[in-house]
Amino acid sequence: MFEPPPLETLPFVWPLAGGLLVGLSAGLYLLLNGRVAGISGLTAAATGLSKGAPRTLGLGFLAGLLGGAALASALIRRPEVQITSEVWLLVLGGLIVGFGTRWGSGCTSGHGVCGLARLSPRSIVATGVFMAVAALTVFVTRHLLGGLA
């Protein structure tokens, strides 16, 4: 079993490797399929809710995404994730995010990774809004609400 060096010694290696792999896969997907590798669009294709990409392409992409995560988890053995929220709250949040991604014509991965690389004006605006709202949310939860989040 592969045992990576402690993150304390090389804290940038794993995020850098992950970012390079995301960029490489998004670039290859665009070059080989002529389509943007946005998760929301491919999920819609996989579920048959979109007329964009073929359903098999969406299913294959999602299978690779889940399989890659499972493989990385098995090989790297990083800290366990403990879910502390109620299931109904997670489902509601997922539905709201799904609605937002369809309404905004893409999610953070589609706009931030693929759209910015193509210099899409819509993606530049969307990513700016994502980042501003994220910064505001952190500020409110940490400084105005006393670190409840």
In short:
By secondary structure, this protein is mostly helical. Helices cover 69% and strands 0% of the residues. The longest helix has 24 residues, at 121-144.
Number of strands: 0
Number of helices: 6
The sequence of SSEs as H and E is HHHHHH
Q: pLDDT below 50 for ≥5 consecutive residues: which ranges?
A: none
Strand share of the residues? under 5%
Helix- and strand-based class? mainly alpha
Distance between the termini: 36 Å
Q: Based on CA inertia axes, which overall geometry fits?
A: globular
Largest sheet: none
Helix fraction bin: 55-70%
Radius of gyration over C-alpha positions, nearest whole angstrom: 18 Å
Mean pLDDT over all positions: 82
Describe the structure.
- The chain is mainly α.
- It is built from six helices and no strands.
- Helix 2 packs across helix 3 and helix 5 crosses helix 6.
- The chain is globular and about 45 Å long.
- The N and C termini lie far apart (36 Å).
- The mean pLDDT is 82.
